[in-house]
Amino acid sequence: MPSPSSEPAGVGGPRGDILLWLVAVGFFMQTLDATIVNTALPAMAESLGESPLRMQWVVVAYSLTMAMLIPASGWISDRFGTRRVYLGAILLFGLGSLACALSPSLPALIAARVLQGLGGALLLPVGRLAVLRAYPREQFLRAMSFVSVPGLIGPLLGPTLGGWLVEYASWHWIFLINLPVAVIGCVATVLHMPSGLGYAVKRFDLGGYALLAFGMVAVSLSLDGLTGIGQEQANVLVLLVFGFVSITAYWLRAARRPDPLFAPGLFLVPSLRIGLLGNLFARIGSGCMPFLIPLLLQVCMGYAPAQAGMMMLPVALAGMGAKPLVTRLILRFGYRRVLVGNTLCVGFMMMTFAWAGPDQPLWLHLLRLACFGAVNSMQFTAMNTLTLKDLESDSASSGNSLLSMVQMLAIGMGVAAAATVLTGYTAHFTGHGVAQTLRAFHATFLTMGVVTMASAWIFWQLPQAGLADRASPARSEPNEGA
Questions:
Q1: How many CA atoms lie within 13 A of 298 on its CB side?
Q2: Are 190 and 87 in contact (CB under 8 A)?
Q3: Residue 192 near residue 68 (C-beta atoms within 8 A)
């Protein structure tokens, strides 16, 4: 492994410090833009002449694009070098941000979010790879701990900053603020990012990648198409079938190839198999909450964008505060008991939003949001560490990429599913105006809460707590995508 001329932050060396700051800023940009748009969706809808309840693809396009590109990120880095790829990622992210700000219509905004997602998908994995190659293994954990801190701050600031910019400037500025950061990042990348050339480049399974990518897109499009917006029901069914056929064909192909993107042998590890399935289905339920909550607050309760953004602070703060608790719980009770019980708690807390209304006191809203944030954060930490804890070093990178892909795919599918359910309930309930929409939101929270609680059955398949199960869950977590 190449060794840099300097050490990571906190150990010494200005050049190493700059590399860590560069990767940390890229991580911050990616996580910030995954959350900053949620509070701005109603203002975007009004500006573009759309219904706020039809804006889900502004979120889905970004997360789905990231899910599609993550499997190829390692090969792209090896083929073209980390410096070139990281520079290209920042440029794509900046150009996508500018295109988002200049978008005159919803289709144009969705296309710009795809471009932005292409850059965002490469920022974290390529930056993490650069740190892995630049630092000795004994310093890598400390380096990545430094890099991961801005990733926690991004979701904390995103909704609040987005609401403030919408209310006191315009929604365009939630994208324009990325431009000066992108310019500085490009200059710093050219000066301080190692080239990353000279590594062996494995053959890329282009056919398998195409099958996997098409399957993910088709399934996500079919979920959104169930709303009946612009698609016939027959087309939705065809998309759904072809999506599952494509994903199945990928795994059949991977089983007979020596160089698949993700080897089927990974699924021989029980903790990874259960962890991935649990991540997928649990996040389909809970992943829709950052989309639904700001809409509920603004559309049904009359909150201003800045107020709605501030209301999301308890979710992030309680989530950060609860992280140390989950490790102690797992060491005491094991993964099975913690994940089954906590999954039920997450679903229950989602269902409590079915009783949220404009006549309730502020403290009750804040308490509800904080409780949801705490159990949801504990869920992410437990699921992620379960998935990766038993992987050997030669399969850890592949397993981590697969987990990151599943996380982003689940978030996109969750938002699409929640929008479908919300549209269906809006058409089902009689009445007009805010009262009808509020009833539809309440029913949607109940439905998505039940979906989340159902995923507890997956974690029930874990073995009873034993010595191996209670081993330290402190393996470094990937991006939670919360």
A1: 29
A2: yes
A3: no
Taking the alpha carbons at both ends of the chain, their separation in whole angstroms is 32
Q: What is the pLDDT of residue 351?
A: 96
Instruction: Give tens-digit pLDDT for 312-337.
Output: 889 888 888 888 888 888 888 889 99
Reply yes or no on whether the pLDDT at 10 is more than 50. no
Which tens digit of pLDDT belongs to each residue from 214-259?
888 888 777 766 655 444 556 677 777 888 898 889 888 888 887 7
Residue 236 structure tokens:
């939705």
Query: Fold identical between 1-202 and 265-482?
Result: yes
Instruction: Say if CB 275 and CB 386 are below 8 A apart.
Output: yes
Domain 265-482, architecture per CATH? Up-down Bundle (1.20)
Domain 1-202 matching CATH 2.40.128.270: the answer reads: no
The closest alpha carbon to 60, from 119, 125, 122, 111, belongs to 111
- Decide if pLDDT at 297 tops 70: yes
CB 130 within 8 A of CB 82: yes
| Token reading at 308 | 């709605």
Gap between the Cα atoms of 56 and 415, Å rounded: 6
Cα separation, 56 vs 34, in Å, equals 13
Measured distance CA(434)–CA(316) in Å, rounded: 28
Burial of residue 195, with CB atoms counted within 10 A of its CB: 0-12 exposed, 13-18 middle, 19 or more buried: exposed
Contact in structure between 382 and 342 (CB atoms under 8 Å):
yes
Q: Are 261 and 351 in contact (CB under 8 A)?
A: no
Output the pLDDT for position 101: 93
Burial pattern 430-443, b for ≥16 Cβ within 10 A else e, equals: eeeeeebbbbbbbb
Structure tokens at 45: 């809808």
Q: Is-contact 223 416, C-beta < 8 A?
A: yes
Residue type, 302: G
Sequence-distant (6+) residues with CB within 8 A of 5 are: 13, 15, 16
pTM (2 decimals)? Answer: 0.81
Domain ranges of the chain: 1-202, 206-260, 265-482
CA 335-336-341 angle, to 5 degrees, is: 105
pLDDT, tens digit, 9 for 90 and up, residues 404-424: 888 888 888 888 888 888 988
* The total number of residues written for the chain in this structure: 482
CA dist 454 to 278, 314, 451, 458, Å?
Answer: 10, 26, 5, 8
